[in-house]
Design brief:
Elements: H1 3-37, E1 45-46, H2 48-54, H3 65-75, E2 83-84, H4 85-94, H5 97-114
Antiparallel strand pairs: 1-2
Helix pairs in contact: 1-4, 1-5
């Protein structure tokens, strides 16, 4: 059980969301997810408390406190005990290997479109 079940859930849905919404639409949806989980007292960050309070809104109600704490620690690159918006995005991509593979293509496409 644990985070592995969580990972599989995201692997199944994120790549198909990108196919349906496109890269920009998908990033907008991730942003909405960040806003939903954001700590209302500490704007710009997701804390364990805000994740626990809002997890059921994203279908994560089966995750226990240890799994939620692990998720925050796993994404907390700077060690401050909370997730910034960028740390959240990186964590979401890391949880879905399909997104990691596709992100190289999206980056190449974005660069080509800017040239």
């Amino acid at each position: 059980m644990g985070l592995k079940n969580f990972v599989v859930e995201f692997e199944d849905h994120f790549p198909s969301m990108v196919e349906k919404l496109g890269a920009e639409g998908f990033m907008n949806e991730l942003y909405k997810g960040f806003e939903l989980l954001e700590d209302r007292n500490m704007r710009g960050f997701i804390t364990f408390d805000s994740l626990k309070t809002n997890a059921s809104s994203l279908g994560l109600q089966k995750m226990n406190d240890n799994e939620l704490r692990y998720m925050v620690r796993e994404g907390d690159v700077d060690g401050d005990g909370k997730l910034s918006e960028m740390e959240f995005y990186v964590l979401m991509f890391r949880l879905s290997p399909g997104l990691m593979e596709g992100s190289v293509r999206w980056l190449e496409t974005a660069i080509l479109n800017e040239l």
